[in-house]
Design brief:
There is one protein chain. The chain has about 210 residues and is of the alpha/beta class. The chain has 3 domains: about 1-115, 3-Layer(aba) Sandwich (Rossmann fold); about 115-145, Double Stranded RNA Binding Domain, CATH 3.30.160; about 150-214. The chain has helices at about 20-35, 45-55, 85-95, 135-145, 150-165, 175-180, 185-190, 195-214, and strands at about 15-20, 35-40, 60, 75-80, 100, 115-120, 120-125. Helix 3 links the parallel strand 4 and strand 5 (about 100). The longest helix has 20 residues, at about 195-214. It is elongated and about 60 Å long.
Length: about 210
């Protein structure tokens, strides 16, 4: 099966998690990191999920899944070891046009969850197409060992400069960006010399953009 890699915008959108164990907690935490509105259906919750409920960060329906539970949701994740529950949720989800992921049950998945490395707003997603979650996790751990210091700072600076250039009607070509985003620029940011880094980046990109408009 082939998969089309995308990043979903789910901020303030209703998502359902069926299950209240450790796996469900990890899925809930991932959804909350994307600012989703999360409801958990489960008769029992981990201590971590109880804390999230008490903080008002999740809604909790204290029972097992029942038909009709997916009404009003855009996405559902099933973290259950009961294949019958997986089948039932997946069937309802597809009837309602709700995207569904059943953990470790590819036949009942419309999408799979990648391993993720985060550096601020920089996100790297790793997938093996469902073939080996363990290998995806290993690749993620290898990438995390490569700290990539400064990439979060670099992303903030690049986003700011890009908007400034767009406001001036300048569009540096990809090759100009590639050349400008070098190790020296990142080193300046790590050293706390943000203004110097900003000026350096602007000089490099503006020169290329102006040359392209002549």
């Amino acid at each position: 099966m082939g998969f089309y890699p995308i990043f979903l915008e789910i901020a303030d959108r209703p998502c359902l998690v069926v299950g209240g164990g450790a796996v469900a907690q990890r899925k809930v935490e991932g959804l909350l990191a994307a600012d989703a509105q999360v409801t958990v259906v489960s008769p029992r919750l981990t201590a971590g999920l109880v804390a999230l409920r008490q903080q008002g960060r999740i809604q909790h329906i204290a029972r097992g899944y029942a038909p009709g539970d997916l009404a009003g949701f855009i996405l559902a994740i099933v973290a259950s070891d009961d294949r019958a529950v997986n089948d039932a949720v997946a069937q309802e989800a597809r009837q309602r046009g709700v995207w569904v992921n059943a953990v470790d049950d590819p036949a009942n998945c419309d999408f799979i969850m990648p391993s993720v490395v985060r550096r601020g707003d920089l996100m790297i997603a790793i997938s093996t197409g469902g073939g080996s979650p363990a290998l995806a996790r290993k690749v993620r751990e290898d990438l995390e060992e490569f700290r990539g210091e400064g990439y979060d700072l670099l992303l903030d600076l690049v986003a700011e400069v890009r908007q400034e250039l767009k406001g001036e009607g300048l569009q540096p070509p990809p090759a100009a960006w590639n050349a400008a985003l070098d190790r020296e620029l990142r080193a300046l940011l790590i050293q706390g010399k943000r203004q110097q880094a900003r000026e350096r980046l602007l000089r490099a990109l503006t020169a290329h953009a102006e040359a392209d408009t002549r």
